Amino acid sequence: MRQAEDLFVVVVGCGRLGALVADRLSRAGHHVTVIDQQESAFGALSPEYSGFKLEGDATEFACLREADVGQADVVVVATENDNINLMVGQVARELFGVKRVIARVTEPAREAIFYELGLGTVCPARIVGDEIVEGLIRAGANGRVHER
Predict the structure, then answer these.
(1) Do the Cβ atoms of 24 and 50 come closer than 8 Å?
(2) What is the Cα–Cα distance from 147 to 9, expressed in whole angstroms?
(3) pTM of the complete model
(4) Least CB-packed of 35, 63, 64, 99 within 10 Å?
(5) Quick check: 72 pLDDT over 70?
(6) Is 16 inside any structural domain?
(7) What does the CA dihedral 77, 80, 86, 89 come to, rounded to 10 degrees?
């Protein structure tokens, strides 16, 4: 039985980002289902991953239904294709009623579109770019960006 603080999270895409998110949430004790079209993608998950794996195409309504997306607290759409992420995110939000959807956006210029449609976004290019610029500003002209 689920505890009140447990989340049920569906992660679409089991590449580097999706596998990282699924692993960390699973280790934290949350209920996770990860969907990917390629069974081989699940090899990116750690041996400790205790969630479900569903091989299928998340652009198909039946696949999302099989993953119980309508019961999810959060859907994380983490494929490398912005169009797929936008579409699956919108379907999860509008047709399945998921209140919190977070989508990966590879192209920073598209981030505002996702946001306007009610999707949370993560843009790796923007995050890394911001970190580099902020590190350079902190370090000054002669310093190192990151001290380790």
Answers:
(1) no
(2) 35
(3) 0.89
(4) 99
(5) yes
(6) yes
(7) -10
